[in-house]
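queue> pop job 88
queue> type: inverse folding (structure -> sequence)
queue> payload:
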């Protein structure tokens, strides 16, 4: 069994191609996650505005993104926009746009929850002590929001990495696509190669996401005691 895996991965540049495909997956995830965190913070602040119009807009966006599968959004962005408007968008750009839209909605809701979870008594006490709005944000709200959001942001990155496996369906040669190519090329020489290649891909995903999950749990446990 081990000999088969080693032989298959060492043939030509198979293993290097898998690592390159994994890097493409991670790169798309990192770019999308950074954009999602930045835009999500703004969206979360927008959601906390006490206004009926902003509430309707934010809930419409949030619920639409949550209801619609990311795969459908990918097809709309890559195939739909091109055919309707005649605009050529590369698969990578389409993926980043879609996952940023999805991640912004998720991050925005996390930011909203973090802000609203701060006890009002703390703010009222700060006002009673003579703190102005800027001081309240700097010394009370922002530190608590950061402690709540960093573990949640790490979890969002982990989810983003796993979700980007969908980009194979719009032609991006990431780790899953590379695995399929290796399986197709060696299907006669290694009839059971599929299970080992997918096993290696599973291991690569695990080694990428597991440390992030551990980090998120550690930070959440550590800061929950503060």
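queue> result:
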């Amino acid at each position: 069994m081990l000999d088969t895996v080693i032989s298959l991965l060492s043939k030509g540049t198979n293993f290097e191609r898998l690592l390159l495909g994994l890097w493409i997956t991670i790169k798309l995830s990192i770019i999308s996650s950074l954009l999602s965190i930045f835009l999500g913070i703004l969206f979360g602040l927008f959601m906390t505005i006490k206004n009926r119009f902003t509430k309707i807009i934010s809930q419409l966006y949030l619920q639409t993104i949550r209801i619609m599968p990311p795969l459908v959004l990918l097809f709309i962005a890559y195939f739909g926009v091109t055919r309707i408007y005649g605009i050529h968008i590369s698969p990578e750009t389409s993926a980043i746009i879609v996952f940023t839209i999805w991640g912004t909605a998720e991050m925005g809701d996390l930011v909203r929850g973090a802000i609203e979870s701060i006890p009002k008594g703390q703010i009222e006490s700060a006002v009673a002590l003579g703190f102005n709005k800027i001081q309240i944000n700097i010394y009370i709200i922002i530190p608590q929001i950061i402690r709540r959001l960093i573990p949640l942001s790490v979890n969002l990155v982990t989810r983003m990495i796993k979700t980007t496996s969908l980009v194979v369906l719009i032609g991006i040669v990431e780790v899953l696509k590379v695995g399929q190519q290796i399986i197709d090329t060696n299907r006669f020489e290694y009839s059971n190669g599929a299970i080992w290649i997918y096993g290696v891909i599973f291991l690569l995903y695990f080694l990428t996401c597991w440390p992030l999950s551990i980090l998120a749990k550690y930070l959440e446990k550590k800061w929950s005691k503060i």
